[in-house]
Amino acid sequence: MRPAGPRSWNQEELARERTAEAKRRTHLANERTYAAWVRTALALIALGVGIAGYFHVAGNSRGELFVTLGAAFSLGGAPMAALATYGYRKTYRGIETGEYGGSTVLTVVLGAVPIALGLLALALIVIR
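Request: output the structure for the sequence above.
Response:
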């Protein structure tokens, strides 16, 4: 931010301030991305508990399969939160050091969890 008063900034000061502002925005974007992954992980856990609880209480003859599905959703959410935390910390360090590079493996693993759980859910619904 520009200081109040008649003093004008030279090009070097302006560049330094703009770089610092860009770094702050990048950190905020990293935090928003992390929050989104954690929300997704919590939603998977909550959905798993809901599925397992509903079919367990319903006394459905196929309830055992859906309790297993609920457990899979819940177990899928926990590593997703852990991987999101790892990714956040890695990105934070990269932003601070100026050596940021995305992680293809992390992205693929984080994306594979909901895909696998969705396919498992689809299979159980079709089997029904």
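Residues 37-127 form one domain.
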